Amino acid sequence: MPKLAPYGSWKSPITSDLIVAGSIRLGEIRLDGAEVYWSESRPVEGGRSVMVRWAAGQEADMALEPFNVRTRVHEYGGGAYQVAADQIYFSNFADQRLYQQSAQVSDSVAEGFPVALTPTGYRYADAIVDPARHRLICVREDHSSPASLPAPPEPVNSIVAIDLASPDAGKILVSGQDFYAAPRLSPDGRLLCWLSWNHPNMPWDGTELWVAPVNADGQLGKAQKVAGGLSESVFQPEWSPDGRLYFISDCTNWWNLYRWLPGSSPEQIEPLCPKAAEFGLPLWVFDMTTYGFESAESLICTYVEAGVQHLARLGTITLELSEISQPFSAISGLKVAAGHAVFIGGMATSPSALVRLNLQTGELKTLRRSSRIEIESGYISAPAAIEFPTADGLTAYGFYYAPQNQDYSAPEAERPPLLVKSHGGPTASTSASFNPSIQYWTSRGIAILDVNYGGSTGYGREYRERLKGRWGIVDVDDCVNGAKYLVAKGLADPERLCIDGGSAGGYTTLAALTFRDTFKAGASYYGVSDLEALARDTHKFESRYLDGLIGKYPEQQAIYQQRSPIASASQLACPLIFFQGDEDKIVPPNQAEMMVDILRQKGLPVAYILFEGEQHGFRKAENIKRALDSELYFYARVFGFELAEPLPPVVIENLP
User: Fold this and answer.
1) S-S: 478 plus which of 29, 104, 222, 396, CB 3.0-4.6 Å?
2) What average pLDDT score do residues 394-419 get?
3) Domains, the chain, ranges and CATH?
């Protein structure tokens, strides 16, 4: 018989210790013959990112301490390593140099020791191997100018070639535009394609797909633009085994698949599977993939339709799309080879895992789980996809998680506290994939609404562009209206509504608390409070992002000030807790500290936790644990509910 206890006071087996001790972050899948490689970020090792190899059922770490496989190109990285012909090439986080290492393994331990290929002062990502010319081709970000200059120049991005016989910083193949991604060689090595774009565009706003012949000396001939433009986003160019160029474009509102035959005109681009569905993604990090070739006649792809993710096979001759039966609600990192596909699959009620799918038999093999957590189903809240009315007569989306704990029930008349989660980006999205941090809350009796506000990916370009010029309005409207919708349904207590978010989601959190009175408390994780400071101080990749989200700066300075929580902090009237990394270059600590000072002076309850050695997003186990427990402790003190178990106290200033 369940015990009767107020919401928020339920004892849960899903502790912060359980979450961080058994969890890793999986990503960066590579295939080399029958061998599978991936990267995993390990909180218990201080967030170190490690390459792991799976071969014939055996795992081996390929990057031993102190190496940390991570690149800082665009600050967000991705595409940090490549594998070919039993050789590994990777970026080391500490010095951002490229290294080469043998992929041979002895007794489940990598035999080779990494050898540096490139000098310091440069960053590298998205490398491919050009075997005929014994070189790497990759994106390079030049940071060699002294940082001590009064006005350091913006880093220069280009595509370079690094001679493996005589490595150096790299010889430039393509330059002149602000950003590059996805250099890819045709199967015969005669053509190179790539993506490029310029300020103020982000890659989901508009990119260009280019192709150029590779000359006998390794340099490129005259380049031809195949697709893309200022208002067309091209994603993941790939060469098929028979030498055709495939890519994804949102030229019809939805990211759909297309192909082009070299030698033909761009007008002869062929749509492959017109559909009101998203086959592509916003290119926040390098080497994001949603399809790959099983053969010249067949490709395997994933797409989102009406908020639901699918895995399918597309015949490249018949152009028939056929569903592949599988149990996952979220799929990422898809890589494909003859006979099998490997991806990270997430379910609603169990941790995500790296899986290998036999494309002939349909058999799934789990290679690595993201968590060793084993949780009884009675403690897990299953997400319910919801649609709710929002401003301007429009509809927004999200996932609702009801409080769930098999050991407890709440008093009949009580409605639960609701924590609204605002994802980052803001051009990103949330999914129904299992998240132990969400279950941490729901198993204690706190409901969750995970919002895909206007501007989120997965609902077409038109939905994505709702945020154009309206960041701080549309996202806030959708979070507020989602909370009000659940209150009206009797699923949330209007006096115990709170909101949290990280980075751009932190901005939405601060804006919702500053400009509206719906929420009664909140938590900002490295959130933006001063839009002007962000426009002036952030890194190159996002330095003009706000042109589209807010307006040109400084020409539209008044709008920046109007929508900055810091400029209107006098309107704040509820408690806030801030979490920040002291090495964050994307949203520096002063963004949080200015807000803390104002709240302190206003006499509002406020807490501030600064984590040493953390950047934008927390990677260390002890800090992830501390943040989760501290946010719960904060709400318990603010809303006055008793915790089932003691937590490390947080200094909350001005708390009555």
Assistant:
1) 396
2) 97
3) 3-15+375-580+592-605+623-639 (3.40.50.1820)
